[in-house]
Amino acid sequence: MCFVYRDEKNYSVNTVTSYEYDLQLFLTFLTDHGCSTCLNEITKTQVRRFIQYL
Fold first, then answer.
1. For residue 31, which of 46, 45, 16, 52 has the smallest C-alpha distance?
2. Global pTM?
3. Is 11:5 a contact under the CB 8 Å cutoff?
């Protein structure tokens, strides 16, 4: 999936790597806080809390 963004969107390797790192950090945050990791179940509040956590 990462290669799709790098190739089709012309994103640099560093950009894609950074996005991947941030998403993994968000996934860890959700898991550590007992939240669902299903995309359809993630709330704005959880995203805001993650940003505050950073």
1. 46
2. 0.76
3. yes
Q: How far is CA 14 from the centre of its chain?
A: 15
* Type of residue found at 9: K
Question: What's the one-letter identity of residue 15?
Answer: T
**Contacts for 19 with CB less than 8 Å, ≥ 6 apart:** 2, 5
Residue for token digits 């560093």?
14
Task: For residues 44-49, give the mean pLDDT.
Answer: 96
**Tokens standing for 51?**
């940003």
Q: How far is the C-alpha of 54 from the C-alpha of 41, rounded, in Å?
A: 21
Query: Which of the given ranges, 6-10, 15-19, 29-33, has the highest pLDDT on average?
Result: 29-33
